[in-house]
């Protein structure tokens, strides 16, 4: 819903792109060998490689072998981390010292991912000289394997404190890379250019102006490598699952047609109004479109909250259309998000979305462009890119694309270019959404728009409409009658909570289902309205009341107990429709006390934190289904937290200084050499040379006061069995010399040196 219908001028939208210079050959029958070649951005710790490997595994691409002479640094989980990411190395230095042939001989890669040149730029080496080094490296790759596929990055931006000119030097290098790639690409040995520069922010995505951080930086890098690597592998995109497009129709996974009949709910502004889901369902709706925030204007709505929203939808037997509202009116509305930013948000909450394809539609961004025609003209490219980014991230849901020009497409940009966007979706699983307000005030205009999509054979829904608006009087009777006659979905705006200038679009007064407005009465109870035409999705049983509770879940098993937390796992429940989640209940002490809900989980595991040391707790779990039925409680599990404590330990410390600057990368290995497990640990050491840790590091939570540094375990590596080890590390800065710490303690006990 647009709050204002304005016209303004705006700057153009910068779009990230990935240019493939030559087609990829078919995948080999044996695992494809992939080498990541670069400097510390690639190797120290280079956890984008861990994310990339996991992404491939999660999407079924398991026949890939990451190769290199360097082992995997710790990134929080086990992964295939062999690489050639050498901290401080220059492209020109690798050529000068003839180092690549030896690496190639040892690893024999089929595909090379190369992000290289940062240290050359830092050392003020001209772009032309760096590209000459690229040419030599490419020749060495082809000498080792004439069919080498090179995926070369336009490197991420840099803004180190000691190099004001580095940012522009990166731009100059990146501007020259595409022409270099095109000149050297061949059919037998193609070169792909991946744009890692666009959309990467040194302030938000690095900790030191150079190296990607672990919160957003490595995720952005991985998301750009993934589609290019898939193309080089020659893999097929996994088919759509769950709700999906069939011609002009939307079908459920089982093949039953699904016609949306729903209500918009302004969740991001009214997150406590969760009764609205049940109230909307009470009028017979089969869909709710839920307003979320991506962080540019509202929110961001975190993954845990998205999981809760999906649970509310499923509990009330509603298909959940999730939309990001921050994109509204981009190019005209100040502060509005781009579709690329919206795509980044969806990828950031992918953990809440995956596995929900039967129940969830991802609406890329609400009304993603205002009325500026020059900006709206980029709708096709921006929407296609957003779709492809979500697919590359493994999101296989039905996607919904809103029209530009405040959603009303009054210049027919979406109408005329929808086929291009549809074909850009490798799963061909995108439905288009038109918002019908004052532009659609006659039956002729409404029918003409509907006819265009029917003629094109493309799916369409009316994602928003009302019975009046400041920009004109929409013909809601024709919208609803024609949608019913043609089998088109519609979702009315909105349940409640509109601002006073458009308060007439509220269907209820103050979210009260007993207080319908004129619009609510017309939409919910009138001709061709919700009560008359809505049919529940068959995934919920097709309208048959579900009174069967899930089976009792298994008694929880306790693991990973520390002084402040414990992890529970249990055997799954079953249900005639489907289990939607579990409640976890806790009581204090070995006996007595009252059980109370301490959390919920959509999976069969839960980690409880914030517990007192040396204390006993009891746990039970119960399952719940989409109809709100709950199972009986499981058996009781008991957990006693530890007191922490020290133990024998060995620490290995190594640091490599960066070329062209005063930075360094430190890697630390901690080994429990004692005879009992460590449950929670804190490593402490002191820098004598004025070195400073650049947060956040990896494998631990680092803190520094003066020269004293502490590193505290993360949730996944807090328990160290006897002889077990964990790797942690950080980037840092120094002045003059960079001596190693003289001693290390673990939980107060002095460790031996490795």
Automatic annotation (TrEMBL):
Q: Which residues form the Fibronectin type-III domain?
A: 552-644
Alphabetical keyword list: Carbohydrate metabolism, Glycosidase, Hydrolase, Polysaccharide degradation, Signal
Q: Which GO terms describe its molecular function?
A: cellulase activity; phosphatidylcholine lysophospholipase activity; polysaccharide binding
From which residue to which does the signal peptide run?
1-28
The biological process GO terms on file are:
polysaccharide catabolic process
Q: Which reaction does it catalyse?
A: Endohydrolysis of (1->4)-beta-D-glucosidic linkages in cellulose, lichenin and cereal beta-D-glucans
Q: What is its EC number?
A: 3.2.1.4
Domain called CBM2: residue spans? 642-754
PANTHER family under this entry? CELLULOSE-BINDING PROTEIN, THIOESTERASE 1/PROTEASE 1/LYSOPHOSPHOLIPASE L1
What name has this protein been given in UniProt?
Answer: cellulase
């Amino acid at each position: 819903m647009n709050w204002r219908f304005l016209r303004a001028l705006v700057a153009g939208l910068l779009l990230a792109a990935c240019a493939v210079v030559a087609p990829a050959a078919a995948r080999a029958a044996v695992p494809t060998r992939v080498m990541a070649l670069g400097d510390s951005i690639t190797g120290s710790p280079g956890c984008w490689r861990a994310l990339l490997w996991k992404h491939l595994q999660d999407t079924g691409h398991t026949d890939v072998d990451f190769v290199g002479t360097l082992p995997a640094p710790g990134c929080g989980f086990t992964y295939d981390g062999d690489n050639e990411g050498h901290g401080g190395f220059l492209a020109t230095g690798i050529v000068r010292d003839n180092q690549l042939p030896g690496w190639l001989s040892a690893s024999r890669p089929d595909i090379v991912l190369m992000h290289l040149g940062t240290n050359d730029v830092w050392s003020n080496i001209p772009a032309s000289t760096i590209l000459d080094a690229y040419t030599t490296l490419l020749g060495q790759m082809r000498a080792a394997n004439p069919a080498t596929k090179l995926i070369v990055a336009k490197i991420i931006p840099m803004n180190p404190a000691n190099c004001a000119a580095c940012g522009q030097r990166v731009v100059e290098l990146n501007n020259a890379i595409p022409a270099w790639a095109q000149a050297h690409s061949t059919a037998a040995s193609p070169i792909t250019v991946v744009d890692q520069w666009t959309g990467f922010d040194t302030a938000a995505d690095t900790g030191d102006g150079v190296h990607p951080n672990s919160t957003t930086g490595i995720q952005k890098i991985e998301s750009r490598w993934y589609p290019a690597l898939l193309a080089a592998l020659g893999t097929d995109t996994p088919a759509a699952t769950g709700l999906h497009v069939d011609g002009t129709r939307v079908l459920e996974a089982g093949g039953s047609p699904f016609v949306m009949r729903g209500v918009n709910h302004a969740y991001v502004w009214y997150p406590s109004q969760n009764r609205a889901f049940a109230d909307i369902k009470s009028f017979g709706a089969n869909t709710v479109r839920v307003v979320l925030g991506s962080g540019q204007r509202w929110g961001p709505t975190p993954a845990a909250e998205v999981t809760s929203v999906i649970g509310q939808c499923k509990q009330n037997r509603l298909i959940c259309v999730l939309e990001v509202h921050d994109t509204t009116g981009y190019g005209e509305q100040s502060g509005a998000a781009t579709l690329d930013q919206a795509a980044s948000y969806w990828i950031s909450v992918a953990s809440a979305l995956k596995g929900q394809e039967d129940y969830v539609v991802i609406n890329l961004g609400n009304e993603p462009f205002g009325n500026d025609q020059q900006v709206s003209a980029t709708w096709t490219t921006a929407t296609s890119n957003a779709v492809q980014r979500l697919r590359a991230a493994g999101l296989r849901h039905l996607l919904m694309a809103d029209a530009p020009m405040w959603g009303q497409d009054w210049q027919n940009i979406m109408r005329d270019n929808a086929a291009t966007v549809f074909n850009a979706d490798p799963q061909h699983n995108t439905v288009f959404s038109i918002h019908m307000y004052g532009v659609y005030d006659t039956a002729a205009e409404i029918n003409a728009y509907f006819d265009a999509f029917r003629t094109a054979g493309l799916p369409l829904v009316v994602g928003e409409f009302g019975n009046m608006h400041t920009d004109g009087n929409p013909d809601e009777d024709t919208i609803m009658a024609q949608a019913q006659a043609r089998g088109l979905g519609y979702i009315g705006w909105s349940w409640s909570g509109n601002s006073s200038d458009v308060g007439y679009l509220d269907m209820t007064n103050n979210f009260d289902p007993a207080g319908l407005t004129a619009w609510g009465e017309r939409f919910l109870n009138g001709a061709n309205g919700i009560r008359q035409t809505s049919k529940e999705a068959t995934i919920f049983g097709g309208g048959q009341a579900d009174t069967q509770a899930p089976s009792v879940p298994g008694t929880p098993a306790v693991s990973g107990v520390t002084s402040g937390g414990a992890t529970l796992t249990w055997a799954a429940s079953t249900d005639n429709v489907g289990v939607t989640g579990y409640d976890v209940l806790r009581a204090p002490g070995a006996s007595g006390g009252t059980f109370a809900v301490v959390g919920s989980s959509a999976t069969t595991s839960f980690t409880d934190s914030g517990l007192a040391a040396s204390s006993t707790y009891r746990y039970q779990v119960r399952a719940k289904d989409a109809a709100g039925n709950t199972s009986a409680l499981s058996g009781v599990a008991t957990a006693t937290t530890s007191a922490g404590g020290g133990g024998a330990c060995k620490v290995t410390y190594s640091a490599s200084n960066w070329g062209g600057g005063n930075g360094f990368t430190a890697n630390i290995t901690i080994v429990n050499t004692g005879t009992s497990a460590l449950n929670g640990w804190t490593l402490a050491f002191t820098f004598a040379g004025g070195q400073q840790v650049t947060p956040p590091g990896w494998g631990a939570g680092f803190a520094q006061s003066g020269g004293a540094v502490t590193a505290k375990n993360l949730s996944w590596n807090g328990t160290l069995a006897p002889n077990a080890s964990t790797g942690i590390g950080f980037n840092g800065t120094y002045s003059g010399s960079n001596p190693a710490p003289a001693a290390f303690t673990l939980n107060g006990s002095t460790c031996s040196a490795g």
